[in-house]
Specification:
By secondary structure, the protein is an alpha/beta fold. The chain folds into 2 domains: about 55 residues, no CATH class; about 190 residues, P-loop containing nucleotide triphosphate hydrolases (Rossmann fold), CATH 3.40.50.300. The chain is built from 12 helices and 7 strands. The radius of gyration is 20 Å and the shape is globular. Bound molecules: adenosine-5'-triphosphate, the ligand Nc1ccn([C@H]2C[C@H](O)[C@@H](COP(=O)(O)O)O2)c(=O)n1 and magnesium ion. Magnesium ion binds next to helix 4.
Length: about 260
């Protein structure tokens, strides 16, 4: 299978100059996963079939937590500090509603009712963003919400997260925050919120446990000020310093940048 990537890469190289680097890799993959598409064959005798990285695979962080736990708020700070590209699954779905796309009405009805949109729809929206971006570092907020979401992402996008953040917040606090949010969201009312909390407990917990067992989960106590919570987030990215430093978008004041004041 990996041979296909290498042999096709020369075919696409001349026509792909205007494409983003992610599009080129996804094209090169022709149905392979992101990680597979980031590999090429080497032809040294005795080393046939060995995969060598052609480019680094994207750095992916999943951001989990109940409704109103502060995912979006902390994502803004992570973006500001480390320059990751923020993809909010909820925002992408709301954009479909606003644009009255083919799935817009169905998505609206599910969100109003606190339910989860079919994984195929959400993953395809994420895939489109990943493929068209020139970034190689992503924060995927509010995803995966269910085991079905997680499996669909693996199947369709073919990538694993490097880091999974879980903002752990008591229900009482989440309810208070959502009801005070005032952003005109159709799901920010007590009836929908109760349903969302039930669905979160039933469907997101297994995902949290899955990443805990894989050693990828970082649990953050989401009570306190925004800055106090962010202090817990900062050290999580330290081991990934080298990968993140290469980002064009890193804030010069980031703790990852040496001699920053
Ligand atoms: N640490 C905090 N203390 C108090 N309020 C907060 C804190 N963090 C975020 N908020 C506020 O709580 C509300 C919900 O936060 P946010 O939108 O970041 O949550 P979320 O996890 O993204 O929620 P959702 O899953 O519904 O999108 C917002 O109005 C935000 O300003
Ligand atoms: N993976 C996802 C993410 C979001 N949704 C739907 C259901 C949520 O209640 C709503 C809002 O998401 P949020 O902005 O709170 O992250 O969007 C989904 O079905 N699947
Ligand atoms: Mg949010």
């Amino acid at each position: 299978m990996w041979r296909r990537v290498a042999s096709l890469s020369s075919t696409i190289s001349s026509s792909s100059r205007s494409l983003s680097r992610n599009q080129v890799f996804f094209q090169a993959a022709f149905g392979l996963s992101i990680r597979e598409s980031y590999a090429t064959e080497i032809s040294k005798p005795g080393e046939e079939g060995v995969l060598r990285p052609k480019e680094k695979a994207p750095f992916i962080t999943f951001v989990l937590g109940g409704p109103g736990s502060g995912k979006g708020t902390q994502c803004e700070k992570i973006v500001e500090t480390f320059g990751l590209t923020h993809l909010s699954a909820g925002d992408l779905l709301r954009r479909e509603i606003a644009m009255h796309t083919q799935n817009g009405a169905m998505i609206l009805n599910l969100i109003k009712d606190g339910k989860i949109v079919p994984s195929e729809v959400t993953v395809k929206l994420l895939q489109k963003e990943l493929e068209s971006s020139n970034s190689s570092k992503f924060l995927i907020d509010g995803f995966p919400r269910t085991e079905e979401n997680r499996v669909a992402f693996e199947r369709i996008v073919g990538a694993d997260p490097d880091v999974v953040l879980f903002f752990d917040c008591p229900e009482e606090e989440m309810v208070k925050r959502v009801l005070n949010r005032n952003q005109g969201r159709v799901d920010d009312n007590i009836t929908t919120m109760k349903k969302r909390l039930k669905i979160f407990e039933a469907l997101n917990r297994p995902v949290i446990d899955y990443y805990k067992n894989k050693g990828k989960l970082y649990t953050i106590n989401a009570i306190g000020t925004v800055d106090d919570i962010f202090k817990q987030v900062l050290p999580i990215f330290t081991p990934f310093e080298e990968q993140l430093k290469q980002s064009r978008h890193v804030n010069p004041k980031s703790p990852l940048v040496e001699n920053s004041s």
